[in-house]
Amino acid sequence: xxxxxxxxxxxxxxxxxxxxxxxxxxxxxxxxxxxxxxxxxxxxxxxxxxxxxxxxxxxxxxxxxxxxxxxxxxxxxxxxxxxxxxxxxxxxxxxxxxxxxxxxxxxxxxxxxxxxxxxxxxxxxxxxxxxxxxxxxxxxxxxxxxxxxxxxxxxxxxxxxxxxxxxxxxxxxxxxxxxxxxxxxxxx
Length: 188
Hints:
It is built from six helices and seven strands; from the N terminus they run αβαααβββαβαββ. By secondary structure, it is an alpha+beta fold. It starts with a helix and ends in a 7-residue tail after the last strand.
């Protein structure tokens, strides 16, 4: 067994395989308007009330502003985390933007409360790490997490992330900054 297979093995077993479906700007606009049926129609999957919370709406507006400033960045943005053949949407995930000048991308993921503590966050993290590794411009993956967010700290545990500092985020307050080389890819 290879070192990578040993490294990722415990986290890739089981039925919690997540795949991503793009959340188009039209769906984000509908979510901002509180129109869940229209957002679901545009997205092609049934979105839940989790996508119209105040926190989610802030994110949709932020991402729409980013995409308006540079439409080429859209492919790096938000995806729905979907499970199974019926398209069960358990949350959303993506990158905060394209790689910076040194090849760093920051990840973000959020699992709806009814689906937490079931392995979906780890599955979303694995998929984000795979996508980062597939991009030649990406050298480093960053995660920023509040020191009080025990669940997110546990989610990245065991994936090789190293704490490299801390930062103050205007929205989230104090965050610990973790990084891992992009080429440490979990097997399919």
